[in-house]
């Protein structure tokens, strides 16, 4: 034991040594005998890949069911409420320190309603576009998973900074475009022009590369022995990226159909 500058601790080593050498009294032994047996608390299970896959599949199935029901009953008026509720729940999940599965499930249902309404409208104008967008989204997701597992593209600090910087830049442009559209000013980012097509391609590329960051974060959490409950949050993160990717692919296909 190292010497401490605290006067109360300077003789601690001697005190501990004398206590260890002293024989215990009969009263002390009796008290120890009558104490209940100590039971170690159950250790929380560590995170596994199966946990993430299971939770992700669960919320995706809920989103698909909600989206299919919305499109089937043509409840397109639920698009705006679904988007607003999904955004609020996403912010709560992101900034809430404790992981809440009910909030994540609520987010999945709200986004499912929103995507179902938007997809239904697009599919009325461009028949078959929904199936194309779904296949395209799954294809990009599967392709990025293969790229990550094979190590074709490694997640480095530099790549991470580039992806995050690109996402921040795109988010700022989207917000600026939204504000300008409220004043009737067309910035050319969402009107089907060449600039709009290029912008959608950039968004799709950033969303695709975001999966690499998601996969790497999951791998790191598993290696560090994160609790199994964090699978909910990783499933939420994957769904956020999937929603963004799907919307951009749907929009790009719409441009191609015009």
TrEMBL record:
Pfam families found in the cross-reference section: BaxI_1 (PF12811)
UniProt superkingdom: Bacteria
Residues annotated as transmembrane: 52-69, 75-95, 102-123, 129-150, 162-185, 197-218, 230-247
Keyword Transmembrane helix attached: yes
Signal peptide region: none
Entry keywords, A to Z: Membrane, Transmembrane, Transmembrane helix
Protein name, as recorded: YccA/Bax inhibitor family protein
